[in-house]
Amino acid sequence: MEEKFRSKDPELVVIYGRRRIGKTELVARFIRGKPAVYFLADRRPGRDLLEEFKEKMSQVLRDESFSRLEVGNWLELFREFLKWWKRGKIIIVMDEFPMLIEDDKAIPSVFQKIWDLELKNSQAMLILLGSSVGMMETEVLSYRSPLYGRRTGQWKLQPLRFQHLREFFKKYSDEDLVRVYGCLGGVPAYLIKFDPNIPFWDNVATRIFRKGEFLYGEAEFLLREELREPRLYSAILKAVAFGASSFGEIAGFTGLEKTLLSKYLDVLEELGWIERLYPVGERIKPRKALYRMADPYMAFWFRYVFPNKSELELGNVGAVLEKVKQDYDAYLGTVYEQIFRESLYGLKRIPFRPKIVGKWWFKDKEIDAVALDEAKSLSAFFEVKWSSLKKTEAERIVQALKQKAQFFNWRKARRREYFGLVARKVEEGEELSKKGFIILELKDILEEK
């Protein structure tokens, strides 16, 4: 962003990503101390937004007379502002740009004209922000968008990775960092709600399970804000959070008609709350797809808050907390798998840098993590356990893994294979390493940068 600002060329930068991911905070820090017009769009009529934007421009110009100008549209407003602005580079931020598009579908064409006729010959840096990922990709970034080809930079902000949690919770154990990730993921707005100076379960009790707290109501707020039929979507999310993974299982759990369910799953996938998985190393076949919760906060909320709302509304936090504690380690098994798969791309202990990472399954066989390098025909297979393993148990798991890998058909005759085990801790893991196995513990994943 700083490089774009120092450029002598006009810049059109698109920044998008799910709610609470930190788009506004990023831009707020970037524009601090710089000449900038910041505007947050909402669902008011376009004329009201135009007038407010004019007022923001007037404040940056430090000239009240600009706010009294009569302008008929966005193009006229930008044209007049650039005539008045005489101080070099200027940043113009349009936050929640999709809100403008919702009010007026012609907005992408309008801003194409603003760029082509005014901004591209100026020293302006226009930043378009949006939380509606689908709308930003179709209306702003896609080939069919009038703005296509005009952007000079784009970033889709992603959640922070597991390894970053240490910077938020310096006093927490490695295991507690996994527990935090299991209920908050890597969303900065959620992580800062936990107090790093109190124990993990105290944070859950006071910051998620207590009525009136931000994290208690956030899931329902997002459902109401993003979806027209939150009740039906809630049923789907609850089903997936409790382990329904195939299309048929979800249909059976929710009772929804299949064509309707398919549409709803697509919406939830677009929002980033669930994801569709296919067996890695195989040709994609829709009928083999499995679904899992992609957002740890939503997964936790629908597994532990949603079914216990009645008790939590009455303030019975202690009783709910005890139930959750009994189940949480089992729940963290899939969380730990996902943490490892996301870390695989950069782990130093892996003998090659993977290009493809995923999960694999065939009938009753399943491998938690598979890493592939297609160019060199390299493969690595891993079992992931959220437990501490004794030496004999670890050996048994690795041998079973080798047997399962024989059913993995990707370049079977010519691939080079590696086998590994990931756990919290492995007793005498060095001995297994000497036998050629990749043995990784939680501390090894946290060391990955």
Topology readout:
Blueprint: H1 2-6, E1 11-16, H2 23-31, E2 36-40, H3 46-61, H4 74-84, E3 90-95, H5 97-103, H6 107-117, E4 124-130, H7 133-141, E5 153-156, H8 174-184, H9 188-191, H10 200-208, H11 214-226, H12 230-241, H13 247-254, H14 258-271, E6 274-277, E7 290-293, H15 296-305, H16 309-313, H17 317-343, E8 356-362, E9 365-373, E10 378-384, E11 388-389, H18 391-405, E12 416-423, E13 425-426, H19 429-434, E14 438-441, H20 442-447
Write a brief structural summary.
The chain has 449 residues and is of the alpha/beta class. It contains 20 helices and 14 strands.
Can you describe this structure?
- This protein is an alpha/beta fold.
- Strand 9 and strand 10 form a beta hairpin.
- It folds into three domains: 2-156, 3-Layer(aba) Sandwich (Rossmann fold); 162-341, Arc Repressor Mutant, subunit A (Orthogonal Bundle); 344-447, 3-Layer(aba) Sandwich (Trna Endonuclease, Chain: A, domain 1).
- It has helices at residues 2-6, 23-31, 46-61, 74-84, 97-103, 107-117, 133-141, 174-184, 188-191, 200-208, 214-226, 230-241, 247-254, 258-271, 296-305, 309-313, 317-343, 391-405, 429-434, 442-447; strands at residues 11-16, 36-40, 90-95, 124-130, 153-156, 274-277, 290-293, 356-362, 365-373, 378-384, 388-389, 416-423, 425-426, 438-441.
- It is built from 20 helices and 14 strands.
- The longest helix has 27 residues, at 317-343.
